[in-house]
Amino acid sequence: MRCDRISPGEARQAIANGAKEIDMVINIGALKSGDYPLVFDDIRSVVEVAEVSGDCIVKVILETVFLSDEEKIAASFISAEAGAAFVKTCTGFLGGAASVADVALMKKTVQYKGNVKVKASAGVRSLKTCLEMLAAGADRIGTSSGVAIMQNVESNAGY
User: Fold this and answer.
1) Which of 45, 47, 85, 114 has most Cβ atoms within 10 angstroms of its Cβ?
2) Helices in 4-145 by DSSP H: which ranges?
3) Is 119 labeled as catalytic in the residue annotation?
4) Pick the catalytic residue: 59, 72, 117, 119?
């Protein structure tokens, strides 16, 4: 399930309907205003619902295109501390795309936790970009071009 804002009740319903992963967009307004406790509580409330199910993970979408590096670090750290399984670059719906620099920064920020992963999403449309994201620390790639990338692996191998 993916939506801009998800409440614990919506997460509970999605899990009851079979969801194994919940994507939630971070509260950008609260983050930008420095209300870190609200950002943490928002994420934690969804993570707690997912933890009750035992087999559902939460991915927190940062919408990196709207954030400074300091805000990306804060968002990644808060997400990790709140128990998110992944921090994710972007939805791709609001412009912008994942960048190698953002993936590397997010990975560096959450690696202390050991179990928090990074998903590069939005704008990954070629094998070259995919490999760059993986080299920067992405554990997962989100792309609508997966079939095209794989169909062109041989022709893209030389970049």
Assistant:
1) 47
2) 8-16, 28-32, 36-53, 69-82, 100-110, 127-136
3) yes
4) 119
